[in-house]
Amino acid sequence: MTDQHQRVPIALRTEALEQLLVERGLVDPAVMDSLIKMYETDIGPLNGAKVVAKAWTDPDYRARLLADGTAAVAELGFTGRQGEHIVVVPNSSTMHNLVVCTLCSCYPWPLLGLPPSWYKDPAYRARVVKEPRAVLSEMGLRLPDNVEIQVWDSSSEVRYFVLPERPTGTVDFSEEQLAALVTRDAMVGVARVMA
Ligand code: FE
Fold it and tell me: Which residues contact residue 124 at a Cβ distance below 8 angstroms, ignoring those fewer than 6 apart?
C-alpha cells in the first residue's frame, strides 16, 4: 500500500471502486447490495458455532472436520464464497491458534459472516504476527507462558478457522447450549470460550 492510499479513507476508496465497476457494467449494484445484506443479516458466527458444538460432541465429526474442513462444514450446509478452502486448527491446553490475513482480510464467510473492523485493521494484521501474545493480551486474552501460540495467515488459497477448547463444566450441555457459548472471537482465536 502506498502513502497515497493511506491518506484516502477506505470508505471513499471503496465507493470510488464500486462506482467504477457499476459504470463499466462489471457489477450490478442490486446484486451487490443483496449479497452484502445476506452476509450482514443471514450468515454469521452462529454457523461457525454450530460446527464447533458438533465437533465437541461428536468425535467422528471432529476427525472429519480436522481432516477436511471444507467437506465437513458442507455437511452442515455451510458453503459458498470464501468458504472453498477451509482449514480447521484445534486449540488445546498447550497450543492456541490465532488467525489473521496479513495481506487483506480473507475470512471464512460461510462460517463467520463478514469480518469485524479490527480484523481488517493494518495494526492487527502487522502486529499479531510479530507479537501475538501482546496483541492477545491487549484484546483481553492472557495466555499462560506454557501455552504456545500459532498464527495462521489466511489467504485466497486457505481460510483458517479455530476450533476452540470446550470449556469445563459443560458435560451436561446439549449441542444447542454449547453452540450458544461459542463467540466469533473464539473462532478467530482472540478469545476463549467461557462457560
Ligand atoms: Fe485477505
Answer: 100, 118, 135
